[in-house]
Amino acid sequence: MVYIGIGTGIGSALIINNYLIPSSELGHIIVKLKDCNRCNYGNIGCLETEFSANAIAKKAKKVLGIKNEIAAKDVIFEAIKGEVSAKKIIEESCYYFAIAIYNIYKLLEPDVFILGGGVMASRQFIMKTLRPNLDKINENDSNKINICCTSFGKKIGIIGAAIMCKTLLK
Hints:
Blueprint (H helix, E strand, L loop, with lengths): L1 E5 L3 E7 L2 E4 L25 H4 L1 H12 L7 H10 L2 H25 L4 E4 L6 H15 L9 E3 L6 H14 L1
Parallel strand pairs: 1-4, 4-5
Antiparallel strand pairs: 1-2, 2-3
Helix pairs in contact: 2-4, 3-4, 4-5
């Protein structure tokens, strides 16, 4: 299982053979090679620069010419309402996220990807945009990549910490 939390940045954790591997750096998988932004670590083209809440807000400011601060949730809300530029931003972001998921899938072959975090608060819209991209990238593979969203909301971090404690105490 792979958990990916999409918020200000990209957080992740893996469960392999019932063992929790926290703080994997999946947000720094390279998904874009041209016209890239740098992340806080100086990497270019990583997932965090394309699909995090900060990345979505940054793209919106640039594309829409907004001078004031804007939140990713506002961009997503405008995309849901049908605003063309906002929708394009989310579609492009989901495309890069699909590339990351596919690469992780090919490397680890997890049973499922579980998505959470603030960006996934609009999970229906994001999943509706993400799924076709993922299916297109994966069209030559007979195995469908399973993705779902956590129902734990903001409690997922506490739950992960509890699992980590349980794992360490074994």
